[in-house]
């Protein structure tokens, strides 16, 4: 069992590395645990909730004010995880969309996801040190759930959450540590984001839930949080409202995740921005990136992490347990 002092609290900054697990740690296949609305209270007091929100806050802090091209440490573990994602990306080439009468939800996605699940164990064996292979049955489920739903052929914030939980587990087993924080967002998560976008476009995936009501661009949320942190204390896009300017987007979208998100929205949606992306339009009036960043974290907790339709699909195991977070005295 992980000692409570190694758990990153909600919104806390972790300066020390999360201790590797004890030798006798028992991994579990993750299961759903939030089955009714009343279970939401258990989730919001759970270790998993504290670990997850703390993980987002820690990485948010690590990338503050930094462009994607910043010179950051790239460990062998980061390189291997990026290579794994490159294999997942290339797998899309093997399953081109098929001709079908319905416009959305190309059924070739089901075949792609089935192949990913078939390969997932091998991918993780290649990416992780031999001594970490016992964790694979637990962490691979989070990876498999990160790319969309095969039945509905949709993608949303719950799938994005599954990938961030996968990353959180990768830290907890000791594969990555605090030195990898910047590279985790800029190399690993950014590569994941490009795969998610490619899947959305290739297979015409539907937004999960009530057509994107809980996300900022129908599909994603966290890249807006981390992307807004990149702009704190720098003057490239100031005042923040400039993020809507086409010349700013063109100039800086390769350096800043927030702008790459805006660029993607403008490519896939037609009509006035204020109409198709009203939540983002309203953000453009906020005076500082710090306020935008903090506001988005609060909004994420309220509009994603507190919504039963999202959390009912979340999986809990030994690394992200549903048990109550220990209160420290």
Automatic annotation (TrEMBL):
Signal peptide: none annotated. One of its GO terms (molecular function) is protein tyrosine phosphatase activator activity. Its EC number is 5.2.1.8. It is found in: Cytoplasm. One of its GO terms (biological process) is mitotic spindle organization. The keyword Cytoplasm applies. It catalyses: [protein]-peptidylproline (omega=180) = [protein]-peptidylproline (omega=0). GO terms for cellular component: cytoplasm; nucleus; protein phosphatase type 2A complex. It holds the Pfam family PTPA. Keywords: Cytoplasm, Isomerase, Rotamase. Its main location: cytoplasm. PPIases accelerate the folding of proteins. It catalyzes the cis-trans isomerization of proline imidic peptide bonds in oligopeptides. PANTHER family: SERINE/THREONINE-PROTEIN PHOSPHATASE 2A REGULATORY SUBUNIT B, SERINE_THREONINE-PROTEIN PHOSPHATASE 2A ACTIVATOR. Belongs to the PTPA-type PPIase family. This is Serine/threonine-protein phosphatase 2A activator. It comes from Leptidea sinapis.
């Amino acid at each position: 069992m992980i000692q409570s002092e190694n758990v990153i609290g909600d919104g806390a900054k972790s300066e020390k590395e999360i201790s590797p697990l004890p030798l006798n740690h028992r991994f579990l296949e993750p299961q759903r645990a939030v089955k009714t609305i009343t279970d939401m209270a258990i989730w919001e007091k759970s270790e998993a909730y504290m670990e997850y929100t703390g993980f987002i806050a820690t990485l948010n802090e690590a990338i503050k004010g930094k462009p994607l091209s910043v010179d950051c440490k790239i460990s062998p573990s980061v390189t291997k995880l990026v290579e794994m994602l490159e294999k997942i990306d290339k797998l899309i080439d093997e399953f081109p969309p098929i001709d079908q009468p319905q416009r959305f939800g190309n059924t070739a996605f089901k075949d792609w996801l089935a192949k990913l699940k078939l390969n997932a164990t091998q991918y993780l064996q290649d990416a992780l040190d031999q001594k970490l292979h016992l964790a694979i049955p637990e962490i691979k489920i989070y990876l498999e759930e990160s790319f969309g739903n095969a039945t509905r052929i949709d993608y949303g914030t719950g799938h994005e959450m599954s990938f961030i939980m996968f990353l959180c587990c990768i830290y907890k087993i000791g594969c990555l540590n605090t030195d990898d924080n910047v590279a985790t967002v800029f190399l690993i998560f950014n590569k994941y984001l490009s795969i998610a976008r490619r899947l959305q476009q290739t297979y015409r995936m539907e937004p999960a839930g009530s057509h994107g009501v809980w996300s900022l661009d129908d599909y994603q949320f966290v890249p807006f949080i981390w992307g807004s942190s990149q702009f704190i204390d720098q003057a490239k896009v100031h005042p923040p409202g400039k993020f809507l300017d086409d010349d700013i987007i063109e100039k800086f979208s390769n350096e800043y995740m927030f702008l790459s998100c805006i660029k993607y929205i403008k490519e896939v949606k037609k009509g006035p921005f204020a109409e198709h992306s009203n939540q983002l339009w309203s953000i453009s009036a906020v005076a500082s990136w710090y306020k935008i960043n903090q506001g988005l974290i609060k909004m994420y907790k309220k509009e994603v992490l507190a919504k039963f339709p999202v959390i009912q699909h979340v999986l809990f195991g030994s690394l992200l347990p549903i048990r109550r977070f220990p209160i420290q005295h």
